[in-house]
């Protein structure tokens, strides 16, 4: 279970949220809503251990997320609103960079098979889902 207790965040001398408390059980689905600049991303970054809080505590499995960040991050997936793709790198370089960051290897031979599929997917991304074949055998 994730527990947030008394969390306060201040940015540029402005209180984004104060004394925020909630818990999330396994299987729970939560939604965070608010206008731009109200602290939604800040809250998620703090919970992920990527941002600074003014006060409060965050526990995961009854341990502070700050006591063993490596163990906490093994259970965590944080997807921000930006893609993480480096525009000044080509597709292979982006894949290589990601794999290096995650301690994985990627043979050029494998990427030679994968990149044409990614290119095909990029073309299809602008099409409506209803126009794409439902049979995965039709995909390259």
UniProtKB/TrEMBL annotation:
Organism of this sequence: Vibrio ishigakensis
- State the UniProt keywords alphabetically: ATP-binding, Cytochrome c-type biogenesis, Membrane, Nucleotide-binding, Translocase, Transport
**GO biological process terms, semicolon-separated:** cytochrome complex assembly
Recorded superkingdom: Bacteria
- Recall the taxonomic lineage recorded for the source organism: Bacteria, Pseudomonadati, Pseudomonadota, Gammaproteobacteria, Vibrionales
> Which residues does the UniProt record annotate as the domain ABC transporter?
18-109
Q: Which GO terms describe its molecular function?
A: ATP binding; ATP hydrolysis activity; transmembrane transporter activity
Q: What is this protein called?
A: ABC transporter
Any Pfam family hit: ABC_tran
């Amino acid at each position: 279970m994730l527990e947030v207790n008394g969390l306060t965040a201040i940015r540029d001398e402005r209180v984004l949220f104060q004394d925020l408390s909630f818990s999330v059980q396994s299987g729970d689905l939560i939604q965070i809503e608010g206008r731009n600049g109200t602290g939604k991303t800040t809250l998620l970054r703090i919970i992920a251990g990527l941002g600074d809080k003014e006060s409060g505590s965050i526990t995961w499995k009854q341990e502070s997320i700050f006591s063993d960040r490596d163990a906490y991050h093994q259970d965590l997936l944080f997807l921000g609103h930006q893609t993480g793709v480096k525009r000044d790198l080509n597709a292979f370089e982006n894949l290589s960079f990601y794999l290096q960051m995650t301690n994985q290897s990627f043979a050029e031979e494998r990427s030679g098979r994968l990149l044409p599929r990614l290119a095909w997917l990029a073309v299809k991304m602008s099409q409506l889902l209803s126009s794409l074949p439902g049979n995965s055998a039709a995909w390259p």
